[in-house]
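Working notes for the structural subgroup meeting. M.R. asked for a predicted model of this chain before we commit to crystallization trials. I am recording the input and output together here so anyone reviewing the notebook later can reproduce the run.

Input as submitted:
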Amino acid sequence: MDIIAAIATGGNPTAIGIVRLSGEGCFALCDRVFRAANGKPFAEQDARKMVFGEMLDSQGRVIDRGLAVRFPGPRSYTGEDSAEFHCHGSPVVLRELLEALFAAGARQAKAGEFTKRAFLNGRLDLTQAEAVVDLIDAETAAAARNAAAQLDGGLRRTLEPIQDALLDITSRFYAVVDYPDEDIEDVQPEQVAAALKTADESLTRLLATCQRGKVLKSGVRTAIVGRPNAGKSSLLNALAGYERAIVTDIPGTTRDTVEESVLCGGVLLRLIDTAGIRDTEDVVEQKGVERSRRAIQTADLVIVLLDGTSEITQEDQDTLALAQNSPRLILATSKSDLLPAGSGPIFKFRGRKPDAAVMLSSVAPGGLRCLEKAIAELFPAGDPREVGSFLTDQRQEDAARRARDAVRRAAEALESGLTPDAVLTDAEEALDALGELTGRTAKEEIVSRIFSRFCVGK
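Returned structure, recorded in token form:
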């Protein structure tokens, strides 16, 4: 492979900037842009130890003084010879150094190309590679911990026993069929059935982690709905910690959806403050109400907000009816600081009851604790020992589901007394799906799509 180079830090001025390169022959190339203070050629510097020296531009002029480090392959991030330069984080300095590397024979790395090389060279499987970008994009400590554990092979270790069991089944079938004259023990249907059952149970448990994994990675799309002036914008502002939405005593102030990401009960919420749902002659407000209805349809969680200082209205009942099919539903009574203890509106439910009912105040100290507790209970973190073994995106879920479906078909074929090749076909299909999940059998277009999510320099 040719030598690739890129700026690994952002485009804004920083205290320290990093330029990295990778590929066979990169150490000799580094000698053209770096002059070590100890006078030794770059290839002779101690591996994985910083060395001080001068960075040179394409004309051999000093552009900065800083540190360099070499990582001999295969014990490097990419699995091949790699190096990094750590200098002052001026965008001009970094660009000059990068141009010098290009002049010396390197080329600009594509988005995610360093990690893609790590995958192609067997340093990472596909789940670990996805964990790299998840770690970069993590917005909560829990998401970062899960990505770090997955990068350490948490999901791979969960999948390996399943793959080993299926490989044992397929190899036994092939051995018996291909070498009938050898003294090979016949396939025992009871053992195969037990192995398939264990694989089914393991994949079912894995698929049960999908919701938690997606919540960790992407958060919960949450719509705050209610009639005008119920306190929706005040709740959004209280959760955000600043005045994100305009709040007035005039009903219908919010004409469009307002979005903000917040941490509530340890859960990342993608909040959508919606226009109050009511019949109106105002054309602009009508469009806002329609967007509110669409937000309810696409939300993972809907918080129906009632004004605790007024009687229940038909608009309140209609709003709750719209949210009946939401995956998660919380009925929240606002302005609890203005109510006597233990009081609040009495709501007669028609159809599905909410998953939780809470009282809250957007202005009183501790007024959101009940809501935070309800959200934490609806989206539990799960067993800490499972961190790193969650399925976190649709691609992973689809592959795991196809693997489980194939395992179940193999078990049904075995139980029905079909010929061994029928069982073998389904077992191999399950292996292919698991291989797609880890990258063993993933198609190039899938791999390319995954790495296109990465930034340049990673």
